[in-house]
Design a protein that fits this description.
The complex is a heterodimer of chains A (about 475) and B (about 300).
Chain A (H helix, E strand, L loop, with lengths): L2 H19 L2 H43 L2 H7 L6 H33 L7 E13 L3 E18 L2 E9 L5 E10 L6 E9 L20 H7 L4 E10 L6 E8 L21 E11 L4 E15 L5 E14 L9 E16 L4 H5 L4 H6 L4 E2 L8 E2 L12 E16 L4 E11 L7 E14 L2 E12 L2 E15 L9
Antiparallel strand pairs in A: 1-2, 1-18, 2-3, 3-4, 4-5, 5-6, 6-7, 7-8, 8-9, 9-10, 10-11, 11-14, 12-13, 14-15, 15-16, 16-17, 17-18
Chain B lengths: L1 H18 L6 E5 L2 H11 L3 E5 L14 H8 L3 E4 L9 H8 L11 E3 L32 H18 L4 H25 L7 E4 L5 H6 L3 E5 L10 H14 L3 E5 L4 H11 L2 E5 L12 H16 L3
Helix pairs in contact in B: 2-5, 2-6, 3-4, 5-6, 6-10
Classes of the chains: A alpha+beta (about 475), B alpha/beta (about 300).
Chain lengths: ~475, ~300
């Protein structure tokens, strides 16, 4: 052993003793530093090796590139054509790409094996909360919905999606779970499962997607809230320059809160609901356009309505002013829907409804024939409690209702609007309800929205003033859907 | 009578399709006029090209008109910027168009970003960072060199769908690239006074332009991409702009005028108003005149013209 190695050995020994003598914390730190140093050394070595390999490849390719140049020079000295140079460049590029791909392929394959969750669907969550205070209904904070949206392609022929909602009304509800074809010929799309039937415009919107806090009274009362339906639907885009779609639907029933029929009970063909709809679009100018639609839902036999038929028809019209260069911060929308309902209704209304009318509004008003059913439509007819004992007498009833709203887009953030509601009572007992709702929507970003709304509801002999503050956020995946436009 | 009615309904529905003139040209639909212009050069007489946007729109807020669904329904190929630039309208329109030829991953779906060297690819995906584009900044159409890649992608896409015309597309592409290369050489020379100049834009869509012509994209009026500005952000931005001597405030013409003007005035920077696409101003008739216009406008501001 020479002198130098001995000195090094001594130095190591002294260092080791020194390290041993250090307090535990300092020792741990130095240990950590040593590990980091080791890791860095390894990384450096790997990088050096990689660089060497790359250099070898470059050298090899350069040699190959130069080799054929010699005979060429012999045949045409100093006159290498531009074409040959381009071909060389192309070949070099291809070889380098191939080389890189060869190196990457095993890693990519490994990555594919590592992440089986890659096929998981897109997931998004919408949280919709509403705080409200009414002169008679009093105050409430409501988690209106925590809505989980899941969607993905099924295969080359279909896609699937589901909307699962939890709310403070308890439990979870499958709002939609549907399969939609993506490659049917002849411009056809077929849909099956549970989905929002293609009736009108705002019936197909989820609550949080509405332009105002509450669903218009006429939609709540006539359609039964969202046009949720279990069934099948065929949609056809007519192949011509003018936009025209035709829809045919076949459902158990239509309307999430339509309680005329139970979704879980089987029925005769005459007891299903059948739908037809046509929708078109007119581009008046680059900035002005009109959407126009007509919908018709027919149930040949509604058991609860004494076995009579029910017809629900509607016309929807939406005018939009959207100056192309300012579309993100200027615009105007006027939307309106007119609905007509015809069915047999018991004189004085259904007695079952009266059993469920112990609501805050009723208590506050002391009027036993009126109930607060849903926000925005608190005036719902309830039959006299004594009617339960007597056989019901039915009468054919025609009812109409509408909503119309105007919303301006003043800036990227502020969207003020005004909604007018009018809806006749289906049983013709309580007359009609009107609503006046100015509102202001503030978009903090595309994924967060605040809305302030005042609503005055009027019914012959009654009125109610309500204030709402809605706060809605979107987490995760979010798509801009065509039907929500 | 009943049969007659049925026949009438069927004829009404299918008649227009049956009577439509048979057009042998390849129907190309582009999302923006920049790609439409290139497709016309590359496709020549073989193609009939339409664009969804006219060029004055904000690409992230193109109104989703149903008439675009009928346009896409007839398309043989679709050209798009890609990198999720068209996320606000295109996926829904494709679905509404019922055209399997242009579905994502179908041969007719031509993503023009394939050969583009993408900038600002996020290392962290988080909505706290704004309306992010997970695959990177999609506004490469403002950089003529990146758009050479788009032209190549168009030619490749057309050749993939119509291999019988591949030679024509290649020839047209080469001719167009030669034209573009000559213009690029000229632009790079002209842009010398822009080197080192700092700019603030409304949205981070000037990144590629800045990179190409040696400018520095200093910040944005938006708080983050897609998030409207707040008063405190503007205050901080103005202070930082003064400190760092920012030369230019760019208002892309589809953003509101007032605030950009205020920021420019408050900081002593020059206000420049630029179109983001071909057709954004009458002078930007095609891609080359579009870049010409943007460069000329920027130079004018820098040179105090």
């Amino acid at each position: 052993m020479g002198r130098v190695p001995r000195r090094v050995g001594m130095a190591i020994a002294v260092l080791a003793l020194g390290v041993a003598a250090l307090p535990r914390g300092v020792r741990a730190q130095s240990e950590e530093l040593r590990r980091e140093l080791e890791a860095m050394r390894k990384q450096l070595k790997q990088m050096q090796e990689q660089l060497e390999k790359q250099q070898k490849v470059i050298d090899k390719l350069s040699a190959e590139k130069q080799a054929p140049a010699a005979p060429e020079a012999a045949t045409a000295p100093g006159a290498k054509t531009a074409e040959a140079a381009a071909a060389d460049e192309e070949r070099l590029k291809r070889e380098v790409t191939e080389h890189i791909m060869q190196r990457l392929r095993p890693q990519l394959a490994a990555a594919n094996k590592t992440f089986p969750s890659q096929f998981n669907p897109a997931i998004g969550l919408i949280v919709d909360t509403v705080g409200s205070y009414g002169s008679k209904t009093r105050g409430d904070f409501e988690l209106r919905a925590a809505e989980l949206g899941i969607s993905a392609s099924v295969d080359p022929f279909a896609r699937g999606y589901a909307i699962i909602t939890g709310s403070n009304q308890g439990g979870f509800d499958v709002e939609e779970a549907a399969i939609v074809t993506t490659s049917l010929p002849y411009n056809l799309t077929f849909k099956g499962g549970r989905f929002f039937a293609d009736f009108g415009r705002l019936s197909k919107f989820h609550d949080h997607d509405l332009p105002f806090v509450n669903r218009p009274i006429v939609l709540d009362r006539y359609v039964g809230g969202e046009s949720q339906s279990d069934g099948v639907e065929l949609n056809y885009l007519v192949p011509m320059r003018q936009y025209l779609t035709l829809t045919g639907g076949w459902y158990n029933k239509m309307g999430a809160e339509n309680e005329r029929v139970d979704n879980t009970v089987s029925r005769d063909l005459s007891q299903f609901t059948y739908l037809g709809r046509a929708a078109t679009f007119f581009s008046l100018t680059d900035a002005n356009s009109v959407d126009l639609g007509g919908s018709w839902a027919y149930t040949p036999e509604v058991k609860i309505d004494n076995g009579a038929s029910r017809t629900l028809a509607g016309i929807d019209l939406t005018y939009r002013y959207s100056p192309l260069s300012q579309a993100s911060y200027r615009g105007l929308v006027w939307g309106t829907e007119l609905l007509y309902n015809q069915e047999d209704r018991p004189v004085g209304g259904f007695p079952t409804t009266s059993a469920a009318v112990a609501t805050s509004l009723e208590r506050a008003l002391g009027v036993p024939t009126l109930a607060a059913e849903t926000r925005g439509s608190p005036f719902t007819l309830a039959g006299p409690t004594s009617a339960a004992a007597t056989p019901l007498v039915f009468k054919r009833r025609d009812s109409t209702g509408l909503y119309t709203y105007l919303e301006a887009r003043l800036t990227q953030r502020y969207y003020p609007g005004f909604l007018f509601d009018y809806a006749q009572d289906l049983d013709h007992v309580a007359g009609y309800t009107t609503g006046y709702s100015p509102y202001l929507t503030v978009w903090l970003s595309e994924f967060q929205r605040l809305r302030l709304q005042y609503t005055r509801l009027e019914q012959p002999g009654l009125h109610e003033n309500e204030f709402f503050l809605q706060w809605t956020v979107i987490l995760g995946s979010h798509v801009h859907s065509f039907k929500d436009r | 009578m009943k049969r007659l009615t049925i026949a009438f309904v069927i004829l009404t529905l299918l008649g227009p399709a049956a009577l439509a003139p048979a057009d042998s040209k390849i129907k190309v639909v582009a999302t923006i006029p920049d790609l439409a212009d290139m497709a016309r050069h590359i496709g020549g007489d073989l193609v009939d090209v339409s664009s969804i946007a006219t060029g004055v729109e904000n690409i992230h807020a193109v109104p989703m008109k149903p008439s675009f669904a009928t346009l896409l329904n007839q398309a043989d190929v679709l050209l798009l910027l890609g990198l999720e630039a068209e996320h606000a309208f295109l996926p829904a329109l494709i679905e509404a168009s019922r055209n399997p030829r242009i579905l994502r991953d179908a041969p007719g779906y031509i993503d023009c970003s394939t050969y583009v060297e993408v900038l600002e690819v996020p290392t962290r995906i988080d909505r706290a960072l704004g309306d992010q584009h997970p695959m990177g900044n999609p506004h490469y159409n403002l950089d003529p060199v990146s758009m050479k890649g788009a032209a190549r992608a168009i030619a490749d896409g057309l050749s993939r769908n119509y291999p019988e015309h591949a030679a024509v597309f290649k020839k047209n592409l080469d001719a167009y690239l030669a034209q573009l290369d000559a213009a690029i050489a000229r632009w790079e020379k002209e842009a010398t006074p822009l080197r080192g100049k700092k700019l603030v834009s409304y949205h981070p869509d000037l990144i590629y332009f800045a990179e190409r012509f040696g400018m520095e994209a200093f910040g944005t009026i938006e708080l983050r991409a897609g998030i409207p500005p707040t008063p405190s952000h503007i205050e901080e931005l103005e202070e930082s702009m003064r400190k760092n001597k920012v030369d230019i405030v760019v208002r892309e013409l589809h953003y509101p005028a007032g605030l950009a003007e205020t920021v420019a005035q408050a900081t002593g920077a020059k206000l420049v108003e630029l179109p983001a696409f071909v057709g954004g101003v009458p002078e930007a008739k095609d891609y080359i005149s579009f870049v010409d216009y943007n460069l000329r406008t920027m130079l004018k501001a820098v040179q105090g013209g």
